[in-house]
Protein 1
Amino acid sequence: MSTRRFEGKQVAITGAANGIGRATALRFAAEGAGLALFDIEAEPLATTASECRTMGVDVAAIPADLTQRAAVERVFAGIRTPDILFNNVGQSAREKSRLFHESDPDTWRFVLDVSLTTTMLVSRQVVPGMRERRAGRIINMSTESAFYGDVGMVDYAAAKMGVIGFTRSLARELAGFGVNVNVVAPAGIRTRAHDRLPRAMIDMVLNSVPMGFLAEPEDVAGVVAFLASDDARYITGQTLLIDGGRWMI
Amino acid sequence: MRLAGRRILVTGGASGIGRAIGARFMAEGARVALLDKAPIEGDGVAIRCDLADTAAIAPSVVQAVAALGGLDGVVHSAGVDLLRPLAEMTQAEWARVIAVNLTAPMLVSQAALPALTEAGGGTIVAIASGAALRPLPERTAYCAAKAGLVMFCKSLSIELAPRNIRVNAICPGIIDTPMWRASWEGAADPQAELAMILDRYVIKRVGRAEEIADAALFLSCGESSYVTGAALAVDGGRTFH
């Protein structure tokens, strides 16, 4: 990557230790951005931060449980308002996933906390500074499940559609302040979560992807970088699917 | 240089969005052929072609491919607007809007397909419109053509994915082009018309052709490597697509 569009910019990324968060951190580092990286998993976060530092940029690696309001307020009080925020953190209940009639409300709360509330809590810390500066970019993470549902994952789909509603409302609130807010919705990306799926399910997904292959986290990082760049200055409130053509909505 | 060595054909390249795309792509290292019925100034291979003239399209594309020595991408930017109540619209007016906005992208894509295939893959980007996602009054032909163009791209993206060709659409909002100015300057109260248009957008300004060129660059380069069949709204927050 020869372009360095983010020299002098500060980028905050949540869920930055692995997968898409890690790939995006590396992408921004390669393009010259200073980074504040957050994750609950301290060790892989430190590894990602070290990889980013080899590209000559300043990186703060901040382990934190961002579902906790007090933790979010504490860690964001310690950094300057970023120019760009990538709200990447989120997950489904994975092995605790159940059909709705068998599901546990405590599991919903966990999924809603980590996949929706965290995005709002972190944004709450960053938005006042962006408004004051009259500039900023927020990119939120959703998923295909938000649009098409996912059997056994009603909580995740609800949380991720919530992210889209949050994004659209925030985009309207912030448009007059030079702050753009958009969503990326990946599908069929090779991450740790995907690698845990049964082979038959991966084959089923592959059969439904016109491009015929699963993407790498770097394929999402490129889109996030675009939405964070000046090239996307007239784009706000939008949801961009990164899915090899699976849904085309 | 995100398009270094790429050979790209841009229709409607003489003015507005198409011209901005040509300039941006060349600045990013692409070799560009510009198709337009109007005189084309500046750099790039210039080919005069009226895209409403269906018989002229394939030879013009062949000419462009020959001049570029192959083809890695196409941008369908040529378009015509028509503000006309249904009761007053003639069949010829309807046919012209459909021809330029929908039939021409089909014919250009068809003519470009052998070269794109020979190149081992590529990108097709169509400049559709926010009117493809949310309707506008008294623009039935325009809305129908642009919505058709979006679905053309989606269908084609499935067909061409095995050839490593990605197909996407951009849906611009109001962009400051001669076509857009003509849409309100002729109104009885142009300033009121302009204010009404801007009121639909959360970013309270008209977009620039260069901002659409930026999106076309994104969809034509490796940054969007897993994006196909998308309709990307670049509209200052109107459609919330």
Protein 2
Amino acid sequence: MSVTFSAPTLETARLILRAPELSDFDALAAFYASPRAAFVGGPQSRELSWRSLALEAGHWVLRGFGRWTLVEKASQAPVGIVGLWHPEGFPENELGWDLFDGATGKGYATAAAIAARAYAYDTLGWTTLTSLIAVGNDGSRRVAQRLGATYDSDFTHDRFGSMQLWRHPGPEALA
Amino acid sequence: MITLTGTPTITTERLTLRAPLPQDAPTFVEFYKTDRAQYVGGPKDDRRGWEFFCTEIGHWVVRGYGMFVVTYTGDDTPLGIIGHWNPKTWPEQEVGWVIFDPAQEGKGVAFEAAKAVIDYTWTTLKWDTIVSYIAYPNTRSIALAERLGAVRDESAEVPGTAYVYRHPRPTA
């Protein structure tokens, strides 16, 4: 029996962006068990990481959009999660990015975020987009800056703590 | 719109069991804010309840099976959520049940739905064994497990603290 949902697939030069699936679990759990997950609610157990994976899939069905697993074309390995995110408790639609260990420094987050942002503006017709970045997550802040986003306001999330809300250039500014 | 495909529907004399839909979220989230949710991982605030509902839907995607929303046939109001649950690190696959509104208790809805799910589990999913994990002292849930013929298995591994009830295999 196969239960699926019809998430779109995106592509960049080096990445495929596809819906999250069970085969992503080990990579996702390793990420959430690592210190790199400190800014996104981790480190967390395998049990909670499995629930996070299911949450990623369920978000697509509940909201009609979600985050993609980044698959590195060269290795076929899942290397991160990037996409459109608006769980209960977030102030606005978000563009978020998490890269797994070993995938940083290659421009993957930026490339995938550009593809996801274009999908939000061109296909979903969104007019604005934010990114919530935990205070101290300098790597993520630099990605936001590379994407042309600017600091907008402070936000406190009940799980992630003190965050900055960064706002992306809108579709007209990018056109 | 992004929809789940490939999920089954189960019907009984009075009930239709279908996969969760986005419009069920408010009922689910409201239930999880109440003390009635204390034996099933709650109470949870709005954020946690919503995230958990996402997980309920996502369970279908990552496992191929999951929890059904129970409705009266012809009335799509969600009465409860009953079905299969097996997060990654649980020792066994479970059949679980929740009735949202206490006004819907005492009508045999949970029994009728759980019975249908268990029959489906043996005949279609062909599981080798079925357990229900029940937090103590959820006496209503224990009574339902016993009415379904399940027997407490004190030797089974438990996720957290719960009683393990094992359902009897049908004798063909």
